[in-house]
Structure formats: C-alpha cells, structure tokens
Amino acid sequence: MRTETLELLAPAPGLRAGLTVHRFGMPGGAPKAVIQAALHADEVPPLLVAQQLRTRLAALEAAGQVTGEVVLLPYANPLGLAQHPLGLHQGRFDLRDGVNFNRQVPDLSATVADAVAGRLGDDPARNVAVVREALRDAAAALSAEHATQDLKRRLLQLAVDADIVLDLHCDAQAVLHLYALTPQAALAEELGALLGAQAVLLATESGDSPFDEACSRPWLVVQQRYPDHPLPLACFSPTVELRGEADTDHALAAQDADAIVEFLRRRGVIAGAPRPLPAPRCAPTPLAAAEQLNAPAAGVVVFHAAPGERVEAGAVVADLVDIDSGAARPLVAQSAGLLYARMATRWATPGRRVAGIAGTTLQRSGKLLGP
User: Fold this and answer.
1) So where are the chain's domains?
2) Within its chain, how far is the Cα of 163 from the centroid?
3) What's the predicted TM-score (pTM) here?
4) Which tens digits make up the pLDDT trace of 218-233?
5) 132 by DSSP, 3-state: which?
6) Which of 215, 226, 240, 249 is most solvent-facing, going by the fewest CB within 10 Å?
7) How many CA atoms lie within 13 A of 4 on its CB side?
8) Residue 166's beta-bridge partner residues?
9) CA atoms within 13 Å, Cβ hemisphere of 331
C-alpha cells in the first residue's frame, strides 16, 4: 500500500486540508478501481467499510492478488468532516454557499466529445484508450477558486480514467440500495446481488451532475455522439447507499467489504475464482419511477412503514401531525413499491422528503435525486 496526501486549497490562512489516498497494486495497472467513502461527510457507515477494505486490500496485495490497481479514499471529504457548527455535524453542503458536496461536479462530457472528434475508429479498445486520454486531459485542465471546487476537481482527477468507481454513501434510515446508469443495469444488478441491495435505481441522467455521473456519463455522451464507432461504456460508477446513518456495525461493514472485494474479483481487478453470484433481492427499477414522498406542511411525522417494507398504492406511509390543531394528515403512496429510505428525524418542514419508494409506474422528470 502506498499512501499519499493531496493538499487542497487552504480554506483560510493558517488552515490546511488534505485528501488521503491509498493505492494498491501496480501503479497505472488495469483494470483500475476507485473507491471513495463519505463524500457526504456526515454519512458515517462508509468510513467504517473503508477501514475494512483497507485491511483486505493490503492482505490481497501482499499475497500478489491485486492484478489491477485499486485507489481507496478512506474519507473523500475532509472539509465536511470538520463541519461542526454549534456542535452538530453537517458535512453535506459547503457552508460558504450551500452547494451540495455531491452536486455540480464538473461535467466533462461535451469537452471530451469535442476532443475525440475525428480520432475514433473501428477498434473498441483503441477508442476506449482515446476517450480515457481525453478524460485525463480534461480533468487535468480543471481549475479551482476555493477548497470545495478543489476537492471535486481532485476527486474527479483520481477517478475519471477508472474502469470502476464506487462512491460509498448512506441514507437517513434505509435499506441498502444503489444508483447507476440505465445501460449498465446488468452490472448494477450484479453488484446489488453481492451487497444484498433491496433497490437498484437506474437513470441515464439524474440531474445536478453528481459525482457518479461525472465519471460514467461522458462515456454515454461520446457513444451517442459517435454511433458509427464502437465504444463500450468503460466506466461503471454507481452510488452505493450503505443503509442508514446509524448503521455502523462491524459485522455489516465486514460483509459489505467482502461483497465489494468479490465484485472487484469478478471484474478482474483482483485475482482468483469468483464465487457463485447470490440471487438478487430485487430487480432494477427506473429512478424516474421512484416516488419521493414529501411533506406538504410542517408537522410531526409518525411512520406506518419501515425501510424494507413493500407498500401498495394508496397506503398510508406516515401521518403528519399539525401541532396547532392536532390533526393528523395522512401521507399516501401514489405507487406500489419498496420503501427504501425515510427521514431520520421526525419533524418535517414544508417540502421535506419524508420517504422514498422504489416503484415502477410513476414518470418523474427533472432533478430525480431531490423532492
């Protein structure tokens, strides 16, 4: 294991922040996998899984079994880890402007598509190499004016040429679920089966340029721009939601790390014969069909359904109790599906997401990750 620290732009004179990077296997080796934990720094379970992964990857490397390269960021957001205003950990938004740490990641799609014009041919492998070179050049050319921009730039530079990018998050109260590109449904289902995911949510674009899509969508855009030249989608970059914020458990973290190692083995990053794939716990569903159940007013939330339960259309998922009148307003599911996440607190403000349901009948558009 080789460890380096990438120093970020100083948030203020006299302050320093660094991004720790562990590298396993052959530098520049292929396939390349990048795994980063807790870009939303208040989402703690990924930090524990990353420690389990570091132990496993070090042992595998010592045994000569890391045949590609694995880049592990045990904490992807040192800036957010330091956010404790009034004693409460934040870590999801940049406090200087309110921008989500996992939104507005630079989208290199148009730049790369323009850069490879006239350079693609009939050889898929060569086309992949051309696009990867253009991605590296575009990421290297990014600039930053403040620490958060620099963080996003550095993370993208580390991951943009990888075959696999696993962005480890968690939700408030949730079962394990993941997000991926629609054309990569088979890979998403494989990873989901290994992790025991209970929802796999697919979209070609979710809106707001989250980190996973900043890595994977350029391939789709180039593929669509130049349909006469064969180009695989050579980066699988899902967001993995490791249950809920309070699910820090050594056994669960070990289970998740083992599943991720097995996925890397099946993809040729780690040597050895893969074990049989477990039966998936769910079929992938469109993110556009996932219902975001939102609070129409302020009130106390009383749930009738827990993460992992299936609900039917018309079912009361929760009550919203008005603290002036005492009236309970039912929050009703529009579609049948699995309740995969719900809020952790029990006071809702107007427009607050109360729960998420993985359904199949709705057709939402716009920014699919928000209310």
Assistant:
1) 2-266, 285-359
2) 15
3) 0.97
4) 999 999 999 999 999 9
5) helix
6) 249
7) 9
8) 35
9) 31
